[in-house]
Amino acid sequence: MGLNAAKKIIKNHLVKGEMIPGEEIAIKIDRTLTQDSTGTMAYLQFEALGIDRVKTKKSIAYIDHNMLQSGPENADDHAYIQTVAKKHGIYFSRPGNGICHQVNLERFGVPGDTLLGSDSHTPTAGGIGMLAIGAGGLDVAVAMGGGEYYLNMPKIVKVNLKGRLGEWITAKDIILEMLKRLSVKGGIGKIFEYVGEGAKTLSVPERATITNMGAELGATTSIFPSDNVVREFLRAQGREKDFSFIEPDADASYDEEMEIDLSSLEPMVACPHSPDKVVAVSELEDVKVNQVCIGSCTNSSYVDMMKVAHILKGNTVSEDVSLTISPGSRQVLTMLSQNGALSYMIEAGARVLESACGPCIGMGQSPSTGAVSLRTFNRNFEGRSGTKSAKVYLVSPEIAAVSALTGYITDPRQMGTPFKVEMPAKFLIDDNMVVDPSRAGEDVRVVRGPNIKPFPVAKPLKDVLNGKVLTKVGDNITTDHIMPSNSKLLPYRSNIPYLSEYCLTPCDEEFPAKAKKNSGGFIVAGENYGQGSSREHAALAPLYLGIKAVFARSFARIHRQNLINNGILPLVFQNVKDYEEIDVMDELEMGDMLKQIDGDTIIVKNKTKNKEYNMLFDVTQRQRNMIKYGGLINLMKRNSL
Ligand code: MIC
Ligand code: SF4
To answer: Residues in domain Aconitase/3-isopropylmalate dehydratase large subunit alpha/beta/alpha (predicted)?
Structure first.
């Protein structure tokens, strides 16, 4: 049997293990990316590893998240990232240059290479045939230092795309269909490989919309083969030399298969507060809209923006709607300004924002109380917009633009024939906003603002772990719940003591106070705990608060690894009865841990209820060692002794 595209790349990069689903493998990482909300911590950790120069083919630090400067903190952190990058051999994409994933597609991504990024939407680069994975900052720091990346070999799922998209039906509708079918947990432990005649009809930005939101399925990553469509895109970016074909063999085998007939899809919407609450737009047509936000790494390409501009052209945004538009990169924004499309947006009344994440991460533009906000983004978790009572719907740029004009959620098919936007034969190329690193050995002073506080490092495992259950939460708790992010909190991503005051507060306002009062303890959770963002702050803040273990019905991939990297035990309930039985403030104890840690299960005593639970501890030897020796940094120091 031949190999699929994903396996071809894994095979080329395999350092340890065998490509058997579920088995631990280690792969070589060619390239890394960081952004500023996770980057400050990632570079502090890189410095803690004591490595002088990055050992990757290319590592890039982007500034795109923490863009509002309503105090010195964000600008201080940017200065830190810029100087630390220069010192250690990392390219620096300046604020204003665009959203990391969009700029990476345009200027840096290379088909067939591996990319590890400290952002959960790193798989966007699967749109040009990279094997691109999101991870915690510490894993990225290790990869920058030349360390391999460990993961369990995912199952490779063939998604056969048949037919063609109808008018007004978009790539967003394809990925929303996937979410509708599979849910936010449906991709755990999987790579989705999109193939078939339908896949060939999709442009690179369309493919990238799909691989981007594969993160919302919980997938390890998603990929489209690198074919002539990718070649044309790279040629138009002046980078044909970076192209190579990465296609599945004709007899390639897959672990699972599914099919989507593109011609059967309708325009769709993900309803509040989860990307998998998907319905047809026709079911929502009388919903009044207060805000529309177009942009984010999901839908901010040149083609997306051109379609929006032509829908808006000659019209005025509904008087009850505030429309914001954030073009994904400076390349996109400049091209819109040069061809006049930007003026269609401005004339229609759009509030054009800088090329950055912006409202997607609650960096401004929080909707009014109880507002309906239509967004072309990828996540609509409760409160992420900065307004807890807001109802955020996820849609295509077409639905967003049409609805901004009508003031109601609107099926764009009623607009007649859509304006056809061609992929440009040549993009506008100017890398003047990317700063080169220093030459090796050059003296660079790293600037550290007062907001940078030491980050907590785990301690080696103790023989007895005891404490109280401080909180109990349900299914699909996101890292936005565990470590909320908005314009007020993002400036403190390098200040864990401050951030910890907000840890888990969207679920339980008293959590930080309870943790302090009881000198730490445990968290109990339902399924898919820690889905969403890669922010390791969702492990660092609990570590700071003295959390020793999280007991969950299941975990999301990146968060689980972030817990282990920071020496926190992720234990899994074997049956739902045990989960149901535990109450907040129950006193738990795990004894004999120095022995128990070597087993596949761990006995947890509930002293309050006089019960015992046999919890799953399904980890690799390397992960076990991280828990034993107090996290990844301590393990690495120990190994290099
Ligand atoms: C997100 O979309 O949630 C973010 C902000 O890009 C995060 C990273 C972060 O929390 O800083 C992500 O997706 O990993
Ligand atoms: Fe930025 Fe939003 Fe994309 Fe995260 S999902 S990288 S916040 S645009």
So the answer is: 7-407
Atom nearest to 361 CA in ligand 2: 7
Tell me 66's DSSP state. S
CB count in 10 Å sphere of residue 351:
14
Question: Hey, which residues does 424 pair with through a beta bridge?
Answer: none
Helix ranges (H only) for 487-575 are 496-500, 511-517, 537-544, 557-565
What pLDDT score does 1 carry? 85
Structure tokens at 231: 């070649």
In the chain, % of residues over pLDDT 90: 98
Q: Which residues of 220-243 are buried (b: 16+ CB within 10 A; e: fewer)?
A: bbbbbbbbebbbbbbbbbebeebb
| Ligand 2 atom, smallest distance to 296 CA | 8
Q: Residue 533 CA: which ligand 2 atom is closest? A: 4
CA distance 472 to 475: 10
Per residue in 325-339, pLDDT (tens digit) is 999 999 999 999 999
CATH number of 5-264: 3.30.499.10
Q: Is 119 in the pocket of ligand 2 (CB under 6 A)?
A: yes
pLDDT reading at 507 higher than 90: yes
Cα(430) to centroid of ligand 2, in Å? 23
pTM: 0.98
Give the DSSP letter string of 398-438: HHHHHHHHHSB---GGGG-SPPP-PPPSS-----TTEEPPP
Residues with Cβ within 8 Å of residue 582, at least 6 apart in sequence: 469, 472, 524, 551, 588, 606, 609, 613
Find the 585 Cα to ligand 2 centroid distance in Å: 36
Query: In CATH, which of 3.40.720.10, 3.40.1350.10, 3.20.19.10, 1.20.950.20 is domain 465-640?
Result: 3.20.19.10
